[in-house]
Amino acid sequence: VHLLDSERGPGLGTSYANGAQLSYSYVEPFASPATLRGLPKMLLSRGSAVRFHPRWDWRQWAWGLQFLRACSARQSLQGTAQLLQMAQASRAMLEQWMREERWSFGFEENGKLVLCPTPESLRLQERQVALQAAMGCRQEVLSVRECLEKEPALQSAPGLPWAGGVWTRDECIGDPHRLCGDMVASLQKWGGQMSWGVRATSFRRHGERVAAVVTSEGEIAADAFVMAAGPRVVALAARLGIYLPVYPIKGYSITVPFRPGVHRPRASVTDLGRKTVFAPLGDQLRVAAMAEVGATGLDVPPDRVRTMVDAVAQTYPGLCDLEAPAVWAGLRPATPTSVPIVGRWRGSNVYLNVGHGALGLTLAAGSAVALSRQMPQAA
Question: Would you say 69 and 336 are in contact if contact means Cβ atoms under 8 Å apart?
């Protein structure tokens, strides 16, 4: 195995400071009838967590039309089933790797609480819980009082508008950047090669097969090629005549330290009203939010930072030092259906592992399982 990465080290792209939730049971596709009904309000509201930045880019409009078509009950159900299956494979595979490789990346099975801001949103979640129960998920619908019992740290914010929540006991957290480092260390141990700061630009073919990848440092020949280049995969795949319905959705995060001596949160929390994730990682809190379609730069507007800082101050008042948050932005490569594209490309020796959106950390190990089953094994 020879890993090429255009960055100077592992996990410096979208994996660097994303939401840190291993959300094995909460994988409902973003494209759904509920999203379609709420789309006008989300897109027109000035303070919305979801924004659309129109561009003169035919790929954006093609992706948007495919997304609208995916907002059907049938596709949402099918997507949920596919994502849950991959998520459960991920859980089993990651746990195996952790045992065998002794990885330590801030992993903790601390449960996940999803807060619903209105009775209507709680009813929607109740239906989703019932749907996923038939697929093997164990989740509980809670009252406000029960939510506070599950996460006592929320008791200091009694004024926030919650109608209830959903508790999933066996959800986990982990630092995605540290996990990437652990993976690379294991790859080195098993004899793999790494090339940092090397960008793949095109391919050299031999008949119907790809013989080598052309990079900024020259050609590299191989028996098989796996494209796992996040948002950059679209341009790279186009070199082989492959159209991929993958488009970047920009997200943001801040990481802030807990104040000394405070009662820290013990569970990860998702606030559906704010579209915000709160994940305790040791002595820090990771806060991830926003979804911007068409925003391609990695700048972090001050208003986005203020929104996340305010969310921490209102959800966990007094628990964190908010003076100098570590800010980050990343481009999550998403498909219209939220289901990633994993597998062999039409009988060639090219394999795809792309389009995981906000579920990259959760689905990474399961994607590896699915991909390896389709690849020829070395002699």
Answer: yes
Strand 193-196, strand 172-173: pairing: unpaired
Q: For residues 50-68, b (16+ Cβ closer than 10 Å) or e, as one string?
A: bbbeeeeeeebeebbeebe
Percent of the chain with pLDDT over 90: 85
Residue 333 has φ and ψ, to the nearest 5°, of -80, 110
Q: Tokens for 282? A: 């040791």
- Asked if 287 and 18 touch (Cβ cutoff 8 Å), the reply is no
What's the rounded mean pLDDT across residues 26-33? 90
Write the single-letter amino acid at 353. N
> What is the residue-averaged pLDDT of the chain?
93
- The reported pLDDT for the residue numbered 307 is 94
* Phi and psi at residue 131, to the nearest 5°: -60, -45
pTM of the model: 0.93
The torsion angle over the Cα atoms of residues 231, 324, 285 and 15, rounded to 10 degrees, is 20
